[in-house]
Design a protein that fits this description.
By secondary structure, the chain is an alpha/beta fold. Helix content is 30%, strand content 24%. The C terminus is likely disordered. Bound molecules: ligand PMT. One of its GO terms (molecular function) is ligase activity.
Amino acid sequence: MDSAALQSAESHYFTNNPPPKDLKVNITLAREFITRHADQGRRVVLVTSGGTIVPLETQMVRYIDNFSAGTRGATSAEYFLQNGYAVIFLHRQFSLLPYSRHYSHNTRSFLDFMKEGDGRVVVDEQHQEEMMYVLRQYMEAKRNNTLLILSFVTITEYLWDLREVAKLMRPLGPKAIFYLAAAVSDFFVPQDRMVEHKIQSSEEFAQNAEDSGDTSGKLPAARTEGRSLIIDLEPVPKFLKSLVDGWAPEGMIVSFKLETDPSLLVKKATHSLKNYQHHLVIGNLLLTRKWEVVFVSSIDGEKWIRVPSNRRTKSFSGVESLVGAADPTGKKDAGEEPAI
Ligand code: PMT
């Protein structure tokens, strides 16, 4: 797609898919955060995390989700903070958060880390040291105000937030980093083809165009025909190109590529790098993403980073991801611990 076509796709998308209600608040928070840290000479990174959803109805009952628990994003955010960055953490609502991730989305409840002592609730002995380590880092981020948490749910909310925050980061030039770990929907239902009410399972109760308030004459993108549900999605414009060329042309941009077929991963990561001309693509496979990733860049070519098999253990917080494989107490050998 040439740049005129991309600009037109961008303008069409943002004209026809209205901004989220909290966009203004998010912009105000992000502007203040970015200005403050830029004044203090800190680098700012936008970490995106979790999956976007595609609603099928305006009054949404059903939606299509994208796989991601938010482990990669939340873990990476901790490492950026540890290394002195200010982090804007744009995540899917209720997906994993930096620091609290150690005690949530687990087979154990956070209450399992507690006990009663002298009529008070305390952390049990076994978890004292680890929790103290995590708590201290969390408190430091709070004290320094280096973590701003914003959230999205739908693809449209994500794209509005990404675009506006990226534009705010533009004046930072190369001091702005974009670390795009979110799993972004490739297909969606445009607002003008979305039915208002819950899709019915039989045609007898199905909405027709007039009932749904639609006058464009377009078929709803999700509808019942006979007893079948037909979903006819449209492609989401590839906004990575807009980010690289227009929203933050001087920023350092790292995207992720998730595949399931090993024979495609490096090919597609390389293709993405060539297509978008950004700095780094980190490729991962669904089944091995916690142990290995491949970095594809124009400087280093293809470089694999693997967690040694003897370190693929469950930590106190459950199965760890690659960038989160460090022992939080720092007692074990950091050895091949990859830096993000
Ligand atoms: O959260 P976890 O459970 O730990 O899982 C982490 C992860 C596997 C989700 C993560 O490591 C990962 O791979 N994230 C990216 C998955 C993805 O959406 O890939 P993609 O091929 O759809 O997109 C590739 C890149 O293009 C993304 O960085 C995205 O920001 C960008 N994109 C995608 C679609 C679109 N319309 N415009 C875009 O710019």
